[in-house]
Structure formats: C-alpha cells, structure tokens
Amino acid sequence: MAAVVLFGLGLVSCGTDSPADGAPNDPSYGPLAVVPGPPNGQEALLPARLEVTDDCVTAVLADGREWLLAWPQDSTSWDDENQTVTYSDGRTTVELRHGDSFSFGGGGTSVAEGGSERIASIGWVAEPAEACPDETIWSVGSIADP
C-alpha cells in the first residue's frame, strides 16, 4: 500500500474569488473544483486513477478511497466536448481522461485528520458540486506517470 503524506493546503483566499451563494460556477470548468492561482509547490504524491463524472473529478486510490481534486486555476483547463482535463505546469502539459492512472503531486487535507477548518476556508474559483466527496481534498501541484 502506498503511503500518502498529508500537507496543509495552500488554498485559503481572502478575496472574493468564489461565486456568491447560489451563483452558478463558471461553466468553462465543467465538473472541476478549481482554486485561485498557480500550483502550490507541494510535492507529496498521490498515486490514483482519475474518476470523471458529470459532477466531480476525483482521484480514486487502489484501496477505493476517493479524494476530491482541487485544480489550480492558472494551470488547468476543461474540454467539455472530449471530457478531458488539461494540466500544464510550465514545463509539461498533460491531458487526463476518465480511468487514466497518474501520480498527483501536491498536498492534501482531510476532516479525519483535523482539516475541517482548512477545508471550510477554501476560496473556490469553481466550487465542487454538492455530490462531490468533501471529506478529503487533494491540491494538485503536478502530474506524473504512476
């Protein structure tokens, strides 16, 4: 079993980047949960399979646990026609599809490990749908082959 190292998410925003209560998210992000700015620079690895649904894009670990992926606005785009995520860190560009396996670099937090306040304070550019898992969130910082 792969060990996952948890780091605090650098996702807190003091601005008003998140949509107002009841306002629709930017449709150009599709089912992505998006946070402001560039990747956070964290480098822990989360080896997982990408799960894309109408509502969410998550990472599913080998043991079945599911993490909501928080994508950095400056590095991520959604192709609605092809249902793909394009991620570019300035060095490489990766196109991800449902079922692809990758190691997601970054950092995560979970309610079980005391991250409730951190999760509640995320300033979303595109909020995750209510149907998305919200107990564990992984801030994407890079993408590597598994």
Give a summary of the structure in a few sentences.
The chain has one helix and nine strands; from the N terminus they run E-E-E-E-E-E-E-E-H-E. The chain is mostly beta strands.
Structure commentary:
The protein is mainly β and 146 residues long. Helices cover 3% and strands 38% of the residues. The chain has one helix and nine strands; from the N terminus they run ββββββββαβ. The strands form two sheets. The protein has a five-stranded mixed β-barrel. It has a three-stranded antiparallel beta sheet with strand order 5-6-7, with no helix packed on it. The longest helix has 5 residues, at 116-120. It starts with 32 loop residues before the first strand and ends with a strand.
Q: If helices are DSSP runs of H or I spanning 4 or more residues, what is the number of helices? A: 1
Spatial arrangement of strands, main beta sheet: 2-3-4-9-8
Helix fraction, binned, reads under 10%
Mean pLDDT: 82
What is the makeup of the main sheet?
A: 5 strands, mixed, barrel
Radius of gyration: 14 Å
CA-based shape: globular
String of helices and strands: EEEEEEEEHE
Unreliable segments (pLDDT under 50, ≥5 consecutive)? 1-24
Number of strands: 9
Structural class: mainly beta
Q: Bin the strand percentage.
A: 35-45%
Distance from first to last alpha carbon: 14 Å
